[in-house]
Write a structure and sequence with these properties.
The complex is a heterodimer. By secondary structure, chain A is α+β, with helices and mostly antiparallel strands. Chain A has helices spanning 3-13, 20-31, 36-46, 50-59, 79-83, 87-97, 130-138; strands at 72-76, 102-106, 118-120, 123-125. Chain A has two domains: 3-59, no CATH class; 72-138, Glutaredoxin. A four-stranded mixed sheet of chain A has the order 2-1-3-4, covered by helices on one side. In chain A, a hairpin with a 2-residue loop joins strand 3 (118-120) and strand 4. The longest helix of chain A is centred in the N-terminal third of the chain and has 12 residues, at 20-31. By secondary structure, chain B is α/β, with parallel strands linked by helices. Chain B folds into four domains: 3-83, Glutaredoxin (3-Layer(aba) Sandwich), CATH 3.40.30; 101-302, Rossmann fold; 304-394, Roll (Ubiquitin-like (UB roll)), CATH 3.10.20.600; 399-503, de novo design (two linked rop proteins). Chain B is built from 22 helices and 16 strands. Chain B has helices spanning 10-14, 17-26, 61-65, 80-83, 101-106, 111-117, 121-131, 143-152, 173-180, 182-196, 210-227, 246-253, 282-291, 296-302, 334-341, 375-380, 399-413, 419-422, 424-436, 462-479, 483-487, 489-498; strands at residues 3-7, 30-34, 46-48, 51-53, 72-75, 159-164, 200-205, 231-236, 277-281, 304-305, 308-309, 311-318, 324-329, 351-356, 363-364, 389-394. Chain B has a five-stranded mixed sheet, covered by helices on one side. In chain B, strands 13-12-16-14-15 form a five-stranded mixed sheet. In chain B, a hairpin with a 5-residue loop joins strand 12 (311-318) and strand 13. In chain B, helix 6 (111-117) packs parallel to helix 10 (182-196), helix 9 (173-180) crosses helix 10 and helix 9 (173-180) packs across helix 11 (210-227).
Amino acid sequence: MGATELDRIIAAHAGRKGALLPMLHDIQHAFGCVDAAAERAIAEALNLSRAEVHGVVSFYHDFTPAPDPRPVVELCRAEACKARGVEALVDAAEAAAGERVNLKPVYCLGLCSMGPSARVRGKLYAGLDEAELVNLVKSA
Amino acid sequence: MTLVRISDDALAVALGADELADAFAKAGCTVERVSSWGMHWLEPLVEMGGMGFGPVKAGDVAAILDGTSAKAIGKIEDHAFIAGQQRLTFARAGRTRPLSLDDYAATGGWAGLDRARAMSAEDVVAEVIESGLRGRGGAGFPAGIKWRTVLEAKRAEKYVVCNADEGDSGTFADRMLMEGDPFQLIEGMAIAAHAVGAQQGYIYVRSEYPHAIAKLEAAIALAAAKIAPFTLEVRVGAGAYVCGEETSLLNSIEGKRGEVRAKPPLPALEGLFGCPTVVNNVLTLAAIPHIMTEGGSGLYAQLGIDRSKGTMPIQLAGNIKHGGLYETAFGITLDALVNQIGGGTASGRPVKAVQVGGPLGAYVPPSQFHLPFDYEAYAKADALIGHGGISVFDDTADMGAMARFAFEFCAAESCGKCTPCRIGSTRGVELVDRIRSGGKVMADAVEALPQMHNARKAGRSREEELTLLEDLCETMQSASLCALGGFTPYPVMSALKHWPEDFGGEA
C-alpha cells in the first residue's frame, strides 16, 4: 500500500466529524482493500485503538481485508429479483464465472420492478435473461 | 430541432437509456434528460411533444422520428397508470430535469421553504402535525410529534438526518426521488432544520445507489446558497442493511459499527453525536415542501383513511406486468394495485403471494387482497405496509424457501447486538430446513452432550419442530432490539400459515 497516498487520504478526512467511514471508502477505492497497515495508520490518526478500527472495517460488507483482483459481477438475489426468477439463472452464471470472475450476490440494487438485475464496473443491467447474464459474466 | 425527453433514472439507464439518448442525438435531435414517470415496464420511455413511446430500443429511433413507430403509447399524462394516481411527492416525476433549478422553481419549488421561514418554528411544527404525516420509512410515527420533541429539546447543537438507506427489496421510491427530484428532499430538510433549530443535516445513502449519491451531491452544491445557513452533507453507507435502522444509522455516521442502540434515549433527544436529532425517511422529508405550501397541510389531512393521512408512493415490484411507482391516497386495496393497475404477473401465471413492506414484511395471499392500504389495517392482519414496496410472486414460488431466506438474510445482516436476532436467525434457518425435511430424527451433536442437561436426547417430531418455530418467532418478535430481528417472523409465520404445503405439510 503506498504510504503517501494513504497519508493523503487520512489527512483529507481527519478533521471531519464522523471521519472514519468516508476515510475507509476512499482507502477501499484507492487500494481495493483496507489492510492491517491501513488500520494502524487510521487508528493513529483518529486516536482510536486498532481494535476499534478493525471492528468497524469488519462490520461493513463494502470493506475487505485483502484485494481481489478478479472482475466483479454483482447479481441481485433479493426477494423481488427472486420473484422474477433470478435463482434459475445462478447455476449458469456460476459456471460461466468459474474461478475467473467474482460473482457476488447483492441484496437489492433498487431495480425491483424489472429484475433480474446486475451491476458490472458501475454499470447497471436490468431485465436479464440467462443468455444475457452469461454474456455479462463472460465479458466481465 | 426535435426535442426528445428521456429519463436518466438508474432503472432507465439499466435498460439502455444512455445508449438511446446517444442514438437520438446522432439522429439530430436535442435530448433532454428528465426524471422517470415511474412506468418501469415502458422504460426507456421516450417523450416527444407530450407523446410517449416505450419501451424503446436504438433500432426504433427512425420509426419514432417519422411517426410510424408501433411503440407509441399516446399522451403520457393521459396514460391510465399516470391518470389514476394522485401525485404530491412525485408531482414532478417525468416532467422536470432533476438538476435544473429553473425547472424546480417553475414547478412550485422553494414555496414551502419560503413560507416556512416566514413562520415561527412552533407554527411550522403545528402544521406538520395537522397534516397527519407519518414516517414513511415503515414505523409510521407522526413526523410532527418527532419534530416537536426535537424543537423543545434545549440544546444549541441539533441535527436533521435523512434516512436514505433504502435496503428493502421491492422498494425504490427513495432512489427515484433522490435521482429525479433531489431539490425537493433538500427543501424538506431545510424546512425541518428551520422547524427544530438545526444547523447541519446529513443524508445517509446506501453505497448501492451511486446515481443517487451523484445527483444529491450536485444538487446540494447548486442549492447551498438557498438553504444557507443550513448546511447539508451526503454520507455513504457501506453495505450494511441494518443501517437503515435509525440508531445504527446514527452510529454509522459517527464512524462506528452500525450496531443498534437501545431506546430510550430517543434520537430526538440524544441522537447524532449525542445531540437532539430528527431522523426521517426520504419520502417523509420530501412530502414536507408540499405540506408547507399555503393550504397544503389541510389538503394532506383530507386524503387517506383513518389515521393514515395523505398519499403513499407505492412501489409495484417483483413478478408484475406493469411495475413502477404508483402514488395514491391511503386506502387502496392490494387487488386494485396488483390485479388492476399492475396487470397481474409478468409471467402471466396466477398470483400466489405478495410481500408488502420489504424483506421484513408479511406474505399476503390473494384471499386478503381486499385489505385497505393503511397502517392499522395491516397491523391487525399481522402484516405491515413498511416503506410501501409490493413484491409479487407467481404460483411457481416456493414459500418455504422464502421463509428460509428471511432467516438467512436476518442472520447475514444482524448487527449482532441482541441475542434473539443474532442467534435466533441461524437457529431459524436450521429449523425451517428440518421442518421441510420432515422433522428431526435424532438429537444433534450438541444436544447429545452430557453438559446439556435440559436438552432433549430424543429427536423431535415435525409437529414439535413447528411449535419450536412458533416459540422462536415469538421470542424474536418481542425480545429483539430493532425491527430486523423483531419483524423477520412476519415473512416466516405468514408463509407457514398460508402455504403450509410448501413446508412439507398438508395444504
